[in-house]
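For reproducibility, we list the full input for the zinc ion complex.
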Amino acid sequence: MLLNRSLRLLRTSLMSGALVASCAVLAQGSAHVHGLVNLDVAVEAQTLTVDLEAPLDSLLGFEHRPRTPAQRKAADDAMKRMNDGASLVRPAAAAQCTLAKTTIEAEALQSTAPAGAKDAEHADLDATFVFTCAQPDKLASIELGLFDAFQRIKRIEVQVAGPQGQSKQTLERPQKLLKLAR
Ligand SMILES: [Zn+2]
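The corresponding predicted structure, in tokenized form, follows.
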């Protein structure tokens, strides 16, 4: 009887342990919310790094491999706009930043899996833009071109980490000016 009860207790604590673990994983990544884009902005010495994570729905309106010519075109256009980092992320001119590197990952769009293979329910696009700034002290703001480039984005949640510490900001369409902590 007693053994039974402690077994049950053990099982309960194992289950809650698993629950805690999966929540921690969720908390690490950003929430997948359609219409939302997450940005991590980090300034370190002369390097400005902008990490973007977006549900494909926020960019395209679908989250699977393109199935029709129209979807293929929409996906190609979205990738093209995403590749134009200098117009999506415009650091204050005084900081004299130049885009040094762009990385884009969107498995659902770039996948070579055969057509008809099962798609995941949701899919993200991750992009990283790295700038080198000659005058990082003058990086007071960044203008974002994301709302112009992607009509489906309603909100951008931004985390900033820089010499002045960390801050969180939310930009709602059509706000485009991200102010950095001064
Ligand atoms: Zn989704």
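Residues 33-179 form one domain. The longest helix spans residues 2-28. Both points were considered when choosing residues for closer inspection.
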